[in-house]
Amino acid sequence: MKFHHPNKKSASFDLTPLIDIVFQLLIFFMVTTTFVNLENRVKINLPSGDFAAVEPSKNITVTITEDNTIYLNGKLIDPLKITESIATELKKEPEKIVVLEADKNVLHGKVISVMDLLKKGGADKIAIATQPTKKK
């Protein structure tokens, strides 16, 4: 049996303030992301060394991150396409040096296999990037 109480109000929610807040958050994040300066570089932890560095902006950069992801000039690349991509880049400017940036936690075998793929693509000049040794 169903009883009806005339003084009982039904519960309802007004979603208008919630929708306003969500739209304001959306606008806030859209506006703030336009001011973020995104670098074209991949963040890695390079090993340290004392030998001379090359200018990365004037060369072809191949980066291997700690999780073995490979980037060519800051753009994610399929490991199976490295050889043809390097060959294409070197056809444009054959005097460029290929700079290999590998995180210091990447296994040596992975670095060697990427170097082999670069050599197959025609890279005769391969430089290995390091960060300067900190003086004590």
TrEMBL record:
GO CC terms, sorted: plasma membrane
Top-level taxon of origin: Bacteria
Q: Which GO terms describe its molecular function?
A: transmembrane transporter activity
The yes or no answer to whether the keyword Translocase is present is no
Signal in keyword set: no
Q: Which organism is it from?
A: Candidatus Infernicultor aquiphilus
Primary site of residence:
membrane
List the membrane topology term(s). Single-pass membrane protein; Single-pass type II membrane protein
Q: Which named protein is this?
A: Biopolymer transporter ExbD
Localisation: Cell membrane
What family does this belong to?
Answer: Belongs to the ExbD/TolR family.
The family database entries (InterPro entries) matched by this protein are listed as: ExbD
Spell out where the chain crosses the membrane: 15-38
Q: Which UniProt keywords apply?
A: Cell membrane, Membrane, Protein transport, Transmembrane, Transmembrane helix, Transport
Record GO biological process: protein transport
Which Gene3D superfamilies does the UniProt record give? Answer: 3.30.420.270
Give one Pfam family: ExbD
